[in-house]
From TrEMBL:
The keyword Ligase does not apply. It comes from Candidatus Spyradosoma merdigallinarum. GO terms for biological process: lysine biosynthetic process via diaminopimelate. This is Diaminopimelate decarboxylase. InterPro entries: Ala_racemase/Decarboxylase_C (IPR009006), DAP_deCOOHase_LysA (IPR002986), De-COase2_C (IPR022643), De-COase2_N (IPR022644), Orn/DAP/Arg_de-COase (IPR000183), PLP-binding_barrel (IPR029066).
Length: 419
């Protein structure tokens, strides 16, 4: 692929002209298509799709998903409040968090749903809301993720209540008269579909232990292919055996379980790109390397430096420049004073340089980093080297280019400092 799927060289130039670079660009059409695919997830007795806010929390994205019928998964009380600020009704938000602050009760009183993610959280919820309905996040005893950093299940993971503590969960429920209405698992981002299915089927075992459970929430983690050789999870294949198992459970017990899924990556990863400018091209001699330096980097996209994540990189010539026939092998680096600010690293190896074949680059050309809709604007080394937080734009279905977040100013970077 020589051209980015939704960001042509012409669009890139037009966006850069209007909003400057670096710029996050989201494509409304792709966001809508991804939402439709998730809403078609196999289910026997109804489905709620929750967008995992942490993947891409911009209000424009949240509002679009809200309008399409999605609900939301928040991983902190701040995300809950941010979604509400964007206009999401409290009852469409579910909170599963590693840190439950002192004042959580106030927030939940407004109608936000809650999954207790530890025994202590369940106990505190019970004290605040005796007799209420609650969800519980279990660690099903297995995990899977694209990398160790994104695996959040199994004995080495602190996420959720260890499955063997179901008895203690029951005691706490009884003590406070709580009713467990929802069982939740989320085993990792970029999980292997086979492991995901195994974990999902194991949650069905938990459902049998808790006769009041009416909803099974399988979390997120559905893989997407950003570069050649990676594979996007087929949601139909992935969900079908679990749907069948739930239909079977209904036949045996009469319990008709509602499904929830919480995709983050799947909904947004390939609907976003970073539009950057080639601000320098250098080399280290005849036996060395050629480098493209972007006006972006770990301040906008941390995934390569953190996980050795692979993102496709496209070169778009500056308007008026011909596309050269020949390619060169380039190492693509960011603008931070840190050799770890490497965009083209080797797969899974953040510190190992890898080269990408790109049309010969000149200063002023554009680089488009694809697959940057999830965990990029949301998770960056923001303000490192005092680079401002980048702007975000939406390519609307009607062809309009809409700014959805302004570039940060220097005044905003220092506004909380006390001299
Ligand atoms: C992060 C997270 C998700 C989304 O994970 P993806 O890999 O982006 O799909 C869903 N549910 C919970 C509880 C999470 O923490």
């Amino acid at each position: 692929m020589t051209q980015h799927p939704f960001l042509s060289a012409e669009k890139a130039a037009a966006l850069a002209e209007r909003f400057g670079t670096p710029l996050y660009v989201y494509d409304e059409k792709t966001l809508r298509a991804n939402a439709a695919a998730c809403l078609a997830f196999p289910n026997a007795f109804g489905l709620t799709v929750r967008f995992a806010i942490k993947a891409c929390p911009n209000a424009a994205v949240l509002r679009l998903f809200l309008s399409l019928g999605l609900h939301f998964d928040a991983s902190s009380v701040y995300e809950v409040r941010r979604a509400m600020l964007a206009g999401v009704p409290a009852e469409k938000i579910s909170l599963s968090t590693q840190e439950l602050p002192e004042d959580f009760a106030e927030l939940l009183r407004g109608g936000v749903k809650f999954n207790a993610c530890s025994l202590d959280q369940l106990e505190r919820f019970g004290r605040a809301f005796p007799g209420a309905r609650v969800g519980v996040r279990f660690n099903p005893g297995m995990g899977s993720g694209g990398t160790g950093k994104t695996n959040v299940g199994g004995p080495d993971s602190s996420f959720g209540i260890w499955h063997e503590y179901a008895g203690t969960v029951k005691e706490i429920l009884e003590k406070h008269g709580l009713e467990l209405e929802r069982i939740h698992t989320h085993i990792g981002s970029g999980s292997d579909p086979a492991v995901w299915q195994k974990a999902a089927l194991r949650s069905l075992g938990m459902v049998r232990l808790f006769p009041t459970a009416r909803t099974l929430d399988f979390g997120g983690g559905y893989k997407v292919a950003r570069v050649d050789g990676e594979k996007t999870t087929d949601l139909q294949d992935c969900g079908a055996p679990v749907r069948d198992a739930i239909a079977q459970l209904a036949e045996e017990t009469g319990r008709r379980l509602h499904f929830e899924i919480e995709p983050g990556t799947y909904l947004v990863a390939n609907a976003g790109a970073i539009l950057a400018r080639v601000q320098d091209v250098v080399d280290t001699g005849a036996s060395g390397r050629k480098f493209i330096k972007l006006d972006s980097g770990m301040t906008d996209i941390l995934r390569p430096s953190l996980y050795g994540a692979q993102h496709p990189i496209f070169l778009a010539k500056k308007p008026g420049r011909a596309v050269p026939a020949e390619t060169e092998n380039y190492v693509v680096v960011g603008h931070c004073c840190e050799s770890g600010d490497l965009v083209s690293c080797a797969p899974g190896e953040p510190e190992t340089l890898a080269e990408r074949a790109l049309p010969r680059a000149e200063i002023g050309d554009f680089c488009i980093v694809g697959g940057a809709g999830a965990y990029c604007a949301a998770m960056s080394a923001k303000n490192y080297n005092s680079f401002p937080e980048s702007a975000e734009a939406m390519l609307c279905e009607n062809g309009e280019m809409r700014l959805i977040r302004r570039r940060q100013t220097l005044e905003q970077i220092v506004q909380n400092e006390i001299a």
